[in-house]
């Protein structure tokens, strides 16, 4: 079992992760291809924990991550006339709560029900007007 520090800020410095202002050519290609839901390259990562994470602590860690990783707060904005790759722009209405979801299947759910839930989430495309991620606990 991994032991996390009691303070979410412990072992983290204030360094912001550097990022580019525009999508790479490959990112822009995938951005365009994903307009068709059948061609989406979205993925899900399912991690099984031995107990639910402490909600307040988890939210605090994600808030810190969003402060330090600009891409977590940025939206893709197409260039005028599509003459350049989309630009990454700070979402002025960024709301961490929109990106964090809490779901319970109850204590008697089967693995198949869990996989069905994951499949349901992965079929819903990201809102292209918001940062392109979500975390379901």
Short structural description:
The protein is of the alpha+beta class and 137 residues long.
Task: Please characterize this protein's 3D structure.
- With 137 residues, the chain is an alpha+beta fold.
- The chain has a two-stranded antiparallel ribbon.
- The longest helix has 14 residues.
- The radius of gyration is 17 Å and the shape is flat.
Let me know the largest β-sheet: 2 strands, antiparallel
* Radius of gyration of CA atoms, rounded to a whole number: 17 Å
Strand order of the largest sheet: 1-2
> Runs with pLDDT <50, length 5+?
1-5
Anisotropy-based shape? flat
Total strands = 4
Which percent range fits the helix content?
Answer: 25-40%
Task: Give the helices and strands, then pairings.
Blueprint: H1 25-33, H2 55-68, E1 74-77, E2 87-90, H3 96-99, E3 100-101, H4 111-123, E4 135-136
Parallel strand pairs: 3-4
Antiparallel strand pairs: 1-2
Primary descriptors:
137 residues, alpha+beta, two-stranded antiparallel sheet, two-stranded parallel ribbon, 4 helices, 9% strand, disordered N terminus
């Amino acid at each position: 079992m991994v032991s996390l520090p009691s303070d979410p800020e412990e072992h983290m410095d204030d360094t912001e992760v550097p990022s580019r202002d525009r999508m790479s050519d490959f990112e822009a290609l995938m951005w365009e291809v994903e307009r068709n839901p059948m061609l989406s390259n979205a993925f899900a990562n399912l991690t099984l924990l031995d107990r639910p994470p402490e909600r307040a602590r988890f939210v605090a860690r994600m808030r810190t991550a969003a402060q330090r990783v600009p891409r977590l707060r940025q939206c893709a904005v197409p260039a005028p006339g599509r003459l350049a790759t989309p630009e990454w722009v700070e979402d002025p209405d960024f709301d961490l709560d929109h990106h964090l979801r809490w779901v319970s299947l109850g204590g008697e759910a089967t693995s198949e029900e869990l996989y069905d839930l994951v499949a349901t989430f992965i079929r819903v495309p990201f809102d292209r007007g918001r940062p392109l991620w979500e975390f379901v606990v």
